[in-house]
Amino acid sequence: MRTLIKNGTCVTASDTFAADLWIENGKIVALAQGGQNLGNADQTVDAKGKYVIPGGIDAHTHLDMPFGGTNSVDDFESGTLAAAHGGTTCLIDFAIQKKGGSLREALDTWHAKAEGRALVDYGFHMIATDVPPPVLDEMGAIVREGVTSFKMFMAYPGVLMLDDQSIFRAMLRAGELGALICMHAETGLPIDVLVERALKAGHTAPIYHALTRPEVAEATGTERAIALAEMAKVPVYIVHLSAQRALERVMEARDRGLPAYAETCPQYLFLSEDDLRGKPGDEFDGAKFVCTPPLRPKHHHEHLWRGLRNHDLQVVSTDHCPFCMKGQKELGRGDFSKIPNGMPGIETRLHLLYEGVREGRISLNRFVEISSTAPAKIFGLYPKKGTIAVGADADVVVWDPEKRFELSHKNLHMKADYASYEGKTVIGAPSQVFSRGELIVENDKTLAKKGRGQFVRRGTFNL
Hints:
The chain is an alpha/beta fold. The protein has helices at about 75-85, 105-115, 135-145, 165-175, 190-200, 205-210, 215-230, 245-255, 265-270, 275, 300-310, 350-360, 365-380; strands at about 1-10, 15-25, 25-30, 45, 50-55, 55-60, 65, 70, 90-95, 120-125, 150-155, 180-185, 235-240, 260-265, 315, 395-405, 425-435, 440, 445.
């Protein structure tokens, strides 16, 4: 099958140029300019007036994840379907080690969740919750299988949290292997005290999820994570950074030349603490927006946008971890600490980020970089994915910069029973989405079959 995408404007992280894109056997085989004739095509897409960009890479998702007595509602079928409709053609999900269990068991479990279900390609990070010497040894085998990043938590005591000594040992081991450590950076023990005091005082509404996880807890955790990585002489990647002071810790480290990287998420750019307060007469409606770290006051938005613009933040991922209000978020009615943490977002990331382009907050090339190229480079997918170049996988999105799209529940494919941006209309959306040369979405219609997505082995860290 030979595919021609003609008359479009190709956009990469560094260049914008007019070219016809030729695809064959799942790869980009030519970029032709000036109407150059390279033979016949079996399939032609006219991209006149549109951008041709690399498919999005979401480096932070939680599909079919157990949490708080329930499971995130999107599995690898519905989650990757939603991703495809939003222009994301590859994601990296998290396999979770059970306390006292092996990394191998966790990885096998997540392979079973994904195999035969995914519509787009996927990789895995490993969440390490327990790292005695046998597990540190086991990390080598996991890296050899293409799972080259490990996430650890400074929060959720007794469930996910590791002490600094364990984190430091894992960082040293990751450095030996060329793996990358991803950190959930909050000071979890004091947070638990604040939660206990709030509940004892009768403060049970969703807004107290934010009020008991203050900005300083994230800033302190970020500083500690960077300090441990500096002592171990290894790179570190801070996940879902939400606030100004945590960003300043990353900026200071990068100014000193340390290999510190960080992502933020659309919810921290577009939503705020006000959403957690709920609706008049229904404060529990704020449970829709409970995620960790929590949404912050609106003034943080501009700091995060500036961080993206100035390369202090490298990536925008989603932390997609959706739960329905009915039967799931409701578990925390009367006790905010029991609300499952997470929001739907895998489908709406590119729509929202493109609004930043339209408003002049970021350039078109930076839009491509933070949504595709940078995660590909940081997590060992580049140049196979994350760019428009000869030899790369033909993960390609034809982006219509004038298409209007309402981010309402009725228009989306995520399984949560609400939409985070209900009623919001954006301008700019995919018209065609290709994964390894196969047209999987066209004009909002699903063409892909479940199970076509492949596990992607990632390289080790080499930035």
